[in-house]
## 1
Amino acid sequence: MCGIFGLVLRKGRVAPMILDGLSRLEYRGYDSIGVAVINNGVLQIRKDAGKIKDVASRLRIAEMKGSIGFGHTRWATHGAPNMINAHPHTDSKGKIAVIHNGVIENFMELKQELIDKGHNFISKTDTEVIPNLIDEEMKSDIGITEATLKALRRLKGSYAVVVLSSLEPDKIVCARQESPLVLGVSENGTYCASDAPAIRPYTNKVIYLRNGELATIDVNGYKIIKVADGSAVERTPEEITWVLEMAEKQEYPNYMLKEIFEQPTSLRTGLRLQEKYVDLLTMFLDRGKEVFLVSAGTSQHSCIAASYIFSKIARLTTYPVVSSEFTEQYGSTVGIDSIILAVSQSGETYDTLKAVDHARMRAATVLGLTNTVGSTLTRVSRAYIIQQSGPEIGVAATKTFTSQVLVLAQLAMRLAKLRGKLSQDELDEYKESLYKVPDIVESVLKETYDKVKDIATREKNSRLFLFLGRGISSATAMEGRLKLLEITYIPSLAYPAGESKHGPISIVEKDTACVFICPRGDTHAEIIGSIMEMKARGAKIISICEKGDTDIKSLSDEVIEMPKNIPELLSPIPYIVPMQLLAYEIAVLKGLDPDKPRNLAKSVTVP
Ligand code: M6R
């Protein structure tokens, strides 16, 4: 979603740094950009639709003078992506500039009220009401901070808002409600941004704002108060431990490929979870009357995979639920005995946080699994685990999927132990297999990439892909489908293979590409039946199966061979890897940017 970067410097011009900060937030997705700076007390704004590089050079943004300012990348929610709707927006007098991430639900009524009071509006955005509301409040002779507080109290919806005004040219006021905002402090200045990677080149000391908080930043630092009552909040900075290189591309042409190849490392880190948190989450999972696994997109696929692992290893029934449906589907029954395990890479996904809010209101216990320290999910969870995958910049989730499954599998194993559902030998065997997973993924990356490239070249023009798996592999199939669909735009379906004869098979014709996920295990015999059904209709069979699996090979047109002896319940981790590579290769062959698929944002922080 939209990206925000603002700063106040003791020395130096902010404009080049704003452009740098915005480029580090590009992964969030955007269609227009804008920058505002104050120089000699004068507020200047340059903005337009387009890519950061193009707009910046066309409008000569880097040359803007001034040591205080901010920038914004807009992902359109209200109003077309064009210059007028690009942020910053100002009040009618052009003295107060605002950038915003989120959605103001009551903007229509506020706009009408402000028009009646003589304010002019030029954009179609919800954001434009904010500077005008602040201007209206300032008529009662209060400063920009107080006026912003009062204006924010009138807003309904979600926001990270940053305010800059020539009336008080030495400070920036910013606040958050449901959309993320982080502050940074350094010797030379103070920063605010949607996400820590934008600030990381300048400082490793950050402060995560919480919902309902407003901060004033100037060259001396920051002050935080609560929007509701103006009371002061004391919060000291936290240190970011990851280095910037972890979020940069290194030798890879783009982030997605880098992140796919980082998986052996991220999985190794994911095996070093802090025991006390694993124990705490396990204890809650054991106590619940019912356990919901709530998440969106890729995180939902991890949850579906985990539901098989929890059931088979720990004998725990869990309900994976898409977060945007949670309140409708289970909102009236969830209660004090329910456990909600919310899984979200970013920890900021609007739908997931909304579901969590609802569950908390009904006294359910919320647990979190996220990749983002300090995210909203960590703050609203009774207990949480950080999956430790390192920053993921590519919009398509890759390393965070495999880490999520790994962490959830560890929780299932710990629960199985607590419940006495597996013998010590069985537990040791699972543990041994789990610890081999990073090495297995490393060899899959080495051994399958060339084959995947060949298949990508042959299949890049396929008009339709089907992804099919049985048992836990149906989750792997769904994730494979999502990867291909979101970055190559090729229409794709994924189904539990047994379900395909209840409808999807009707679209199969000669040469329809069917990817089958076929690990050895309980579902092996059944998947052979499903392959034969598709083959009989002329489908092109692309199988991912164990080396030496002659039954599958004899039925397939293309085979990607995987290492032997991977337990079926852990198979989603290595078996997704060739599908991540396939999606990546096809996107590149089609000339598409795999890091920034159209219409998508890394973190979906709006309803
Ligand atoms: O940050 P989250 O895990 O909550 O994000 C959920 C989805 O938005 C995310 O997985 C999305 O589907 C990705 N683009 C998938 O690659």
## 2
Amino acid sequence: MKKRISILGSTGSIGRQALEVINKLRDKFEIISLAGGDNVELLNKQIKDFKPKFAYSTKKESLIGAKYATLDEICSNKENDIILVAVSGKIGLKPTLTAIKNGIDIALANKETLVMAGDIVMKLAKENGVNIIPVDSEHCAIHQCIKNITQVEKLIITASGGPFLNKSIEDMKKATVEEALAHPRWDMGRKITVDSATLMNKGLEVIEAHHLFGIDYDNIQVVVHPQSIVHSAIEYIDGSVIAQLGLPSMHIPIQYAITYPERFEGIKSKSFNFTEIARLDFEEPDWDKFKALKIAINSGRIGGSLPVCMNAANEEAVFAFLEGKIKLFDIINSVETMLSEHSFIKSPSIDEIFSIDEETRIKTRELFLKLV
Ligand code: MG
């Protein structure tokens, strides 16, 4: 039987690669819905190629070939076996909650969902018997390594170090948008690429891992690994370490997540050759240069509403940086300012999460007006 899937964010980087995977596995999947943003030209092309029943675009009137459905309608449709949430940023949270409430499994490529509301999302998933299968390469690696979660002592999350790994703090202060977007290993969307340049992305991933696998922050280690071959590892209680290795390609974790628990050849990675790779380096992150990493992990550790504030401030600041309005380090400074002014709530409700998110965004944008 074909697996019935919907993709939120089909025109984005992950969504496009997911469709490349599905194109190789046409006999395994039936696409129920595709949701894109404003790139309706590409979305219409995808609709023509993959013939979903439903589609969503912000440009509703330009959709051709599928019935329009809202994100909420797409995620309430129980025809779906799985929904790939591949949108970027906070817009992933609401549809993910809807899908979980409807008992639909999630392939999650949107880490902000867990950063903002990890406690609520994971609890709801458990209550509804929903699997949340990570697409993020590090979490996919951990998911592949774990056999019995109760025997896991520690998670080891690798970080490539991004474009500024071997640059000075002074270089980073002067960094242009192009330099921040020139990631040495991974081809990703713009927001996540900037997050990877500041290592904020790795901080968000630590929070994501904490929620997905229920491991304490004290037992999650970040290791810089410039070659991006070891995608992450786990240490068992007896000290055995299991790592997942592979050439850097997002096709593989996407394919793993949407075909899980099966494995198919699909888009096959080039055969792995240890002698060609020859060496693998590992080092401690430079915590002073990549302050965002520390800030993100600390806010995850404190929990409650703090990661919501941190995520909102970061996302707004990254947009402003991409528009050339602020400098790279202003992203971190804005996040710190917003965190210092935040009124903490220990167990925020979903409504509180959305209002904290909105308020923080408004305040962050006001902050930029003072900067320029
Ligand atoms: Mg990742």
